[in-house]
Structure formats: structure tokens, C-alpha cells
Amino acid sequence: xxxxxxxxxxxxxxxxxxxxxxxxxxxxxxxxxxxxxxxxxxxxxxxxxxxxxxxxxxxxxxxxxxxxxxxxxxx
Length: 75
Hints:
3 helices; 51% helix
């Protein structure tokens, strides 16, 4: 199917799911890479307190806070 045909179906509110390869779908720039960061114990304790209060993991808190800071910096 050509892109303009796909666009027409999408614009016409037709179901386009059957035309997508969802097994290989990904968001650009979302590939993950592991990094190691050392934090002082007081920070880890603070992360854990906030994470427990919100019912999420420590890693989630760290990722969200870093993302917020990067967004403010207009990177």
C-alpha cells in the first residue's frame, strides 16, 4: 500500500491496524541503554520514600525527575 492510500484510510477513520506491523513498531529515540550512577545514601533513601508514597519504583522516580529537568533545559 502506498503512503497516500494509507493516509486516506486514516483520514477517513478507517481501521488501519491491519496494515501496521506492530511486532516491529517502536517510537524513535526510545531505545534504552543501561547506565550506572552512584548516589549518596541520603538520596537513595529520599527516592525510596517518595516512590513508596506514590506506589512506584525508585527507578521510575529517577527517570521522571531527570526527564522533567531535561525538558526544562530545552535539550
